[in-house]
Amino acid sequence: AGAHRSFEELLPAYELLGGRDCPGYLRIQRSIVNCLRELGSLPEAIRLAEELLTRQQAKYPPGHPELLLTANELGQCLSKNYRAQDAEQLLTQQLEAAAISPFDTADLERELEITLARIAIDQQQYELAVQRFEAIMKSLPDSANDNRASIASNLGVAYAGLREWTAAETCFREALERYRDTFPPDHPHILTNLGNVRAALHGQGKLAEARKIKSEIERLKGGSNSAESNVAAKEQRLRRRLQQQNEATASRLDALKDLASLVQAQENYAGAEALYQEAITLYQQLEHDRPELEIELRINHWYAVSQQKRYDDACALAEQTLHRAREILPEKHGY
Question: Is residue 227 very low, low, confident or very high in pLDDT (cuts 50, 70, 90)?
Fold first, then answer.
């Protein structure tokens, strides 16, 4: 939010110096798009990014680095706003243009390919995500340690989605070791990948090893009190975010889902039930075409009911969820 305000204050100066089409003004606008995306203001971010890309396309030839940078921002916004197909089409078109352009854009093209691979994960197209991330990993120079760590972590997520836990553990451990070469022991990237390793060990039934990882995470966080404080702070942030987003938007749906998951993890099942019910209602209002998300919300909803020992209600909700899943998901889908 602070960065957003600062960039907005810079715009008039750049407009005075070179006009609204000068490179500096356009780059500041792209930075504002990034801030809006991080703040969850996706409709506004998409509107600004589309306007910016249109102006840049009139200024630069196809495949220009500035076009790739803006398209990558727009693609991420579209994907987060449940418009993955539009994002894939945009990014694919930009990659095709870059392939025949005279510009040296190999690094930027790789960033677009990474975004496409992450979109595949978001869409639960895990086999496609594995293919994309493995291809990216092979193309990376040996010196790209930070990128290798991030890609290894994402590749692990894709393997976990396929329930290939051994491969997932290998990827998470590679990411962990690379991050340890760069960051302090309690850095969020390290804690996240320790948690990922723990999940992969659980998936393989290696419970004793998973418990050791859990102890290491708690030690790095400074003990259980610190962990509880972090959870409480995250819950407060999510509740503030919901208060700020009263309209029926994809950003509000994401915040509801995240808060419901957090509340359920704390075994507040009555609170989670209410939040999941609100999220399901909002999903129906938005008329999204993300069947996996709908079923995920429904599964968590009836689970929260079952944990309150309201078994008749839970069975009825579970049957409704199964019926709905058969309507909207492929026959052999994991759900």
Answer: low
User: Among candidates 294, 237, 260, 235, which has minimal Cα distance to 82?
Assistant: 294
User: Which amino acid appears at position 293 of this protein?
Assistant: L
Query: What value does the mean pLDDT take over residues 143-166?
Result: 88
| Residue 245 clears pLDDT 80, i.e. is over it | no
Residue 212, token pair as written in the block: 């050791």
pLDDT at 143: 63
The reported pTM is 0.69
Residue found under tokens 């003990």: 223
| pLDDT single digits (tens) 49-87 | 999 999 999 999 999 999 999 999 999 999 988 888 999
